[in-house]
Design brief:
132 residues; alpha/beta; five-stranded parallel β-sheet; 5 helices; 36% helix; binds [cytidine-5'-phosphate] glycerylphosphoric acid ester
C-alpha cells in the first residue's frame, strides 16, 4: 500500500488541480491531501473564494482523493509524513526544490503544472465580467 501526500489550497477546483491529483494518485494506492486552512491561506497571502469546509467538501468528491487533512502551517509536513506513513510527497513544479528537505523522510516528486489555468486567473476574469 503506497501512500502519496500533497498539499494546497485547491480553491475553485479546476482541471489543473484535477490533473495534479490524478497524477499524484497514479504514483501510489492512496492519496492524502493537506488542505490549507483559511488561517494558513492568510499566511500564504491567499484569500480563497470558498471556505476550508466548502473546499473540503469539493475535494472529497474528487475520485483521486482518499483523505483530506487540514494544512495549518509550514512546519507540519514531516510530522504528517510520519503520522500518515506517506511514501511519496508530490507538488506541482512551481514548488520545485522548495520541499527537498523532505527527501530524508519520503520520495519527493514535483510534477509539471498544467499551463494557463489558475484559481486567481478565474477569479479575475469573473470579477471583470461582473463589473462590466
Ligand atoms: N497546480 C497545477 N497546475 C495549475 C495550478 C495548480 O499543477 N494550473 C498544482 C500546484 O502546483 C499545487 C496544487 O495544484 O501542487 C495546488 O495548487 P494551489 O491550490 O495553488 O496550492 P498552493 O497555494 O501552491 O499551496 O504547503 C504547500 C502549499 O499549501 C501549496
Amino acid at each position: 500500500m503506497k501512500r502519496v501526500i500533497t498539499y494546497g489550497t485547491f480553491d475553485l477546483l479546476h482541471y489543473g488541480h484535477i490533473n495534479l491529483l490524478k497524477r499524484a494518485k497514479a504514483l501510489g494506492d492512496y492519496l492524502i491531501v493537506g488542505l490549507s486552512s483559511d488561517e494558513f491561506n492568510e499566511m500564504k497571502n491567499k484569500k480563497s473564494y470558498y471556505t476550508y469546509e466548502q473546499r473540503k467538501i469539493i475535494l472529497e468528491a474528487c475520485r483521486y482523493v482518499d483523505w483530506v487533512i487540514p494544512e495549518c502551517n509550514w512546519e507540519q509536513k514531516i510530522n504528517d509524513i510520519q503520522k500518515y506513513k506517506a511514501d511519496i510527497f508530490v507538488m506541482g513544479d512551481d514548488w520545485k526544490g522548495k520541499f527537498d528537505f523532505l527527501k530524508d523522510y519520503c520520495e519527493v516528486i514535483y510534477l509539471p503544472r498544467t499551463p494557463e489555468v489558475s484559481s486567481s486567473r478565474t477569479k479575475k476574469y469573473l470579477e471583470k465580467k461582473l463589473a462590466s
